[in-house]
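Subject: DUF4339 domain-containing protein structure
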Amino acid sequence: MASWFYASEGKQQGPFPEGQFRDLVAQGVVRPDTLVWSEGMAGWQKVAEIPGLVGGGGAPPMIPAGGPPMMGSGGYADGGGGVGGAGSLAVDFGILEFTWRTLVLLIGSCFVIPVPWLFVWYTKWIVSCVKVPGRPNLSFTGNAMAIVPWFFGFIVLAIAIGFIGSQLLSNLLFVVQLVLYWLLVRWMVANLASNGQPLGLSFTGSIWAYVGWNLLFAISIITIVGWAWVAAAQMRWFCRSIEGTRREIVFKGSGLDILWRGIVAAILCSLIIPIPWVYRWIMNWFASETVLAPRGSQAAM
């Protein structure tokens, strides 16, 4: 069944399943002069111009074939009702809000027990600050209770191994930690939503690949600068491993880009006060280098 987008105050809303979209039309939320788009349409059209849509008749709307439209500047949607083109992500948050939220997270984490709830609270906020072309109102729908067993199970295991004092078990604890991080990534990706509707994304990277990348990164630190190139390659692998969208997620940043920014960030963060501005600068760069592009375009980059 087709998914629909509509324009409201210059922004794309959607995607909406056809049944829900027809309800919006019937309720007057989507008016006859509202611009709408669905996959297969040549461009944005007014509702009144699409046969079979106004009046909620039983026959499906007549959708002309053609290329994807553009909404505003580079706007498009991926996923179920994808609009063509390519565009990069962006991050936007206030310095004061970042500062107080981060302090609450750090101070609260010292008490250990609130960590799962603080993590979800902070993640919901930071995800809402990410702007994705064609995916308005990005949100995170995960519940803290989903990760409570992982978190406290790991705490109990760490305490037990600490009492035993075995080096072999300590190494095993490190592997368990990586497995939990991998599960956390899968859980976070699966709980991303837009306009309150799940995006249906999944992280398909294997646990062995995840562990391998992290070990390679740890080893690369010995080379002083090699870690930056490993980080860039790991980001590209991470993006390729996200599925459930009709667009490729492509990371374009290079190792050199990461290296000099990392050095600048380390110097500035040593001064403490610039940390919020540095964090926003780094996040914005990573977001701007993460592009949603037509399938097959990655090979050409």
